[in-house]
Request: fold
Amino acid sequence: NAEYMGDPSRISAMQTLFRSARLPVRSFATAAPQNRFLKKISEGPVICAEGYLFELERRGFVQIGPFVPEVVLNDPQAVKQLHREFARAGSDIIEAFTYYGNRNKMRLIGKEHLLEPLNVRALELAKEVAAQEGDLLVAGNVCNTTTYVHKDAASARESQAMFDEQVRWAADAKVDLVIGETFDYVDEVLIQIILSNVFE
Reply:
């Protein structure tokens, strides 16, 4: 919450962590120069339908347990169909299905070599459907890395490296925004927000 985030001792601890971990601030110049999301949200409410992981698991396309979005590569039409359904239900944003598509999760299932192809393809699918359904906004997506350990500099560096990869691919795809979700620690959220400066 805001009080927790603004706690001076918390901020000081994060500054110490950043210094000790030597986490670099990134910028991504390939992002879209005009942010359509900020324009859209200034005009009124913006709806983003999501829940890809559990809906695709329910439909038999995502394996329970690892929950890695291999369906993006193995059955892209299933992903596009769900994108279309969300768009037609009223979503203003098509979110790339890259939830749990990070290096750690791919390593756990022995498919780390598919990390970039999976992320790039997920972004392509989202952009294709967004264009077909009326020039909707497109979002990249990152989530908790499952490796971050509170106040541990090494794990902070590892998490940052994983965020950097996914956010860079999203920026290269010129998405309108990047959604960060389901983090276990505020510290990990701050690493993603503060250090992944996507849109300058």
